[in-house]
Amino acid sequence: MMSLFPLARDATAAKRAPALPPPSGCWRLAWQRPGGGEASLLITRRSALANAGLLLALLVASGVYLALGSVHLAPRSLAAVLVGGGDPVARFMVIELRLPRLVAACLTGAAFAVAGCLMQTLARNRLATPGIIGIDNGATAFAVASVVGLGVSLAPPAMALAGAATAAAITFGLTAGGGSRGYRFIVAGIGVGAVFGAVTQLLLARVDMDTANAAYPWTVGTLNARPAGALLVLGAGLAVGLAMALQLSRALSLMRFSDAVAQGLGSRVGCRRWQVLAVSVLLTGLAVAVAGPVGMVGLIGPEIARSLSCPRGVPIVASALAGALVMVLADLLGRVLLAPIELPVGIVTAVVGGPWLLWILLRPHRSLA
């Protein structure tokens, strides 16, 4: 009988063999597991550098955002306020007025951009963002309905979530025969968005001026005087949505291929598609409940992230950072460009995002596959 000891010695030698070098363009992080054995993680250098660069740009933009406005603050005064000192006027301007608005800009921008990245990957098309396929308009219509008073007791965040889910369900239902990919899905979403947009205008036309003014932020997009409770709900929802999106990162990478290829590689395409849609609806509804329909961020943020990150993966973290950066810069521009007149952030992003959308349409390749 053949002895098993040589095989045991071979297995022991294989365990002690040095690890293979990481692929080109990657870093390998290895650590010992508590129960024994080694675990490792591959990090793409380009994506890591892109995330670091976007984070640094966001920090710089945040500092400029807090310093500029109707009252300009010197860097020394801003630093004194941030560490707990400074004069009362500067503290009021930064802590009470600008810092909550900056937090709202970062949270909503990240939520819109991550939702856009997920929807683009799901549909394999860069035009399939929540703003273009009608999810933003659905959330807006339901939020406005809760504000103008139609006998509905739910708060705007809950109504915005319901509206986003309704718009997504209608769009997917209309394209049940063609799936969630291709221009049929986008055209159906545009039609659904147009219907919900008309519903919003009808609701505003049938109420008094004061009520219409109260619902106005949910029609153009603004970050002025956002309620703290909505920000807390959005922050919690963004944390949950980011965690779920990162957990689905491998399935998202496989979704860029055909369904047959993804299933052959072990992905449950139908289940994963509904999970991605649920995360997109969650992030979009909560972001609209805070800032209104700032849809172009879901188009610009993922495009910036995709151009900077590794093309092999889905840039979820980079999209969140890029979306937050775009929202912060857009709101800063709206505050200082025509001061003391303030432009809503939704108008600024629409002016910037319109040419960007035309550029994407004129490019020869628009698929994410």
**Termini distance?**
55 Å
- Kindly state the percentage of residues in helix: 55-70%
**What are the secondary-structure elements, in order, as H or E?**
HEEHHHHHHHHHHHHHHH
- Helix/sheet category: mainly alpha
CATH class: Mainly Alpha
* CATH homologous superfamily (4th level) name: ABC transporter involved in vitamin B12 uptake, BtuC
Q: Can you count the beta strands?
A: 2
Oligomer: single chain
Family: Belongs to the binding-protein-dependent transport system permease family. FecCD subfamily.
Membrane topology: Multi-pass membrane protein
Protein name: ABC transporter permease
Main location: membrane
Explained architecture:
- It is a single chain.
- This protein is 69% helix and 4% strand.
- It has a single domain (44-362), classed as ABC transporter involved in vitamin B12 uptake, BtuC.
- Strand 1 and strand 2 (38-44) form a beta hairpin.
- A two-stranded antiparallel ribbon has the order 1-2.
- The chain has 16 helices and two strands.
- Helix 2 runs parallel beside helix 15 (316-336).
- The protein is mainly alpha-helical.
- It is globular and about 65 Å long.
- Keywords: Cell membrane, Membrane, Transmembrane, Transmembrane helix, Transport.
- The chain crosses the membrane at residues 48-68, 102-119, 131-152, 158-178, 185-205, 225-246, 276-301, 313-333, 345-362.
- InterPro entries: ABC_BtuC-like, ABC_transptr_permease_BtuC.
